[in-house]
Amino acid sequence: MGLLPLTFASAWASGINAWATVLILGLLGRFAHMGGVPDGFQRTDVLIVMAVLTVVEFVADKIPYLDSAWDAVSTVIRPIAGTVIGALIAGAQGDLLTITLAAVGGVTALLSHLTKAGLRLAINTSPEPLTNLTASITGDLSVAGVLALAFANPVPAAILAGVLLVLTAIITILLLAQVRRGWRAFRRWLRRDTATA
């Protein structure tokens, strides 16, 4: 039963930052000898690629509108990563457990991604960069904290991830007007950016 909370917490983190999630899981498995981490995540080549992509996302996530462009591309990547993480945590045997944890992983990652992307669109309507930077760093720290907790105590980590998911969903719904305004501003940014290219 500990696999379900671990999958949920990892998938929530994947919806925020898939690359950092795989990197942190790999590092925890390889250097902290945490059980349950898929062997493939601990390989040196995987850790290097994930570290590079984590740095790219770390930078892109701090720049207004570039963060939304990155989130748009990640709409496909993050839920797939959550699905794969769930399947691998289950052992990828093709049984009901694998299918269940893959589904939990994919859906959870999609929901956390959508709330994150919506909030960032709303935050991008703010004229000052501090809000965007604060939101990005908070997301980075949340991913690291939830994943570290997940391997020490999966159930509290899953509860924390669930609370964060519900809170961000509520905030996103409350800020729906700003999310729409952010979406329109993002589309104008894209048109302006492609026109100058």
Mean of all residue-level pLDDT scores: 91
Tally of DSSP β-strands: 0
Low-pLDDT ranges: none
Q: How is the main sheet built?
A: none
Q: Give the H and E element order.
A: HHHHHHHH
Range of strand content:
under 5%
Distance between the termini: 52 Å
Count of DSSP-assigned helices: 8
Tell me roughly what share of residues is in helical segments: over 70%
Q: What class would the helix/strand composition place it in?
A: mainly alpha
Q: What is the count of distinct domains? A: 1
Shape: globular
Question: Measured on Cα atoms, how large is the radius of gyration?
Answer: 17 Å
Brief description of this entry?
The chain is an all-alpha fold. Helices cover 83% and strands 0% of the residues.
What does this structure look like?
- By secondary structure, the protein is an all-alpha fold.
- The chain has helices spanning 3-16, 18-31, 44-60, 66-90, 96-123, 129-152, 154-174, 176-196.
- The chain has one domain (3-196).
- The protein is built from 8 helices and no strands.
- Helix 4 runs antiparallel to helix 5 and helix 5 crosses helix 8 (176-196).
- The longest helix is centred in the middle third of the chain and has 28 residues, at 96-123.
- It starts with a helix and ends with a helix.
